[in-house]
Design goal:
Strand content: over 45%
Radius of gyration: 22 Å
Number of strands: 13
Shape: flat
Order of helices and strands: HEEEEEEEEEEEEE
Structural class: mainly beta
Largest sheet: 13 strands, antiparallel
Distance between the termini: 76 Å
Number of helices: 1
Length: 178
């Protein structure tokens, strides 16, 4: 009887939590214009998260049975991004990640390149650019890499402009300019 009570309680709790998490689904064409489900290239899903914060997820519809997450972030009010932001390519590989505060980039931001292996199944992503943002402006250290992972450039930004000494390198690793 006790097990039955717990099972019933768990089922009711789960059903109640699912009701509270219902979100909004919008279907979009390839230009991000609203369209019908049958003509959609993308769909976006907005769900309540907590304390008037919502979770946004956008998916690329690859086939009738496959969809890939291409963008994910949290927001409050309409399109005012807060917290961690992630974007992905249409094949599901990582493209970009960083943080927003009041809809402005703040903190570390990383862009990734897709490294194509001989086998198209095992594509890998790797770091391409890393910058620090304060109020949507690059401020602080940055690093850019070539496709092989060697350093292309490094230095500092101040208010979106190069600051102090920045170093740029040739693909072979030799210093190109300061």
């Amino acid at each position: 009887m006790k097990k039955l009570f717990y099972l019933l309680f768990f089922s009711i709790s789960f059903a109640f939590s699912q009701d509270n998490l219902e979100g909004e689904v919008n279907y979009l064409d390839f230009k991000d214009n609203p369209t019908s489900k049958s003509n959609a290239t993308y769909y976006e899903f907005k769900t309540p998260y907590k304390n008037e914060i919502y979770k946004y997820q956008k998916y690329f519809i690859a086939s009738a049975t496959k969809a890939y997450l291409i963008e994910k972030y949290f927001y409050y009010q309409e399109d005012n991004k807060q917290g961690k932001y992630q974007s992905f390519r249409k094949d599901g590989s990582k493209k970009e990640e960083g943080y927003y505060k009041d809809d402005l980039k703040n903190g570390p931001w990383v862009l990734y390149w897709l490294k194509k292996n001989d086998s198209s199944i095992n594509n890998e992503t790797y770091l391409y650019k890393k910058s620090i943002y304060v109020n949507n402006l690059r401020n602080g250290s940055f690093k850019e890499l070539y496709e092989d992972g060697s350093t292309q450039g490094e230095g500092f930004y101040k208010n979106n402009n190069f600051d102090k000494e920045c170093k740029w390198y040739h693909p072979n690793g030799q210093l190109s300019s300061l």
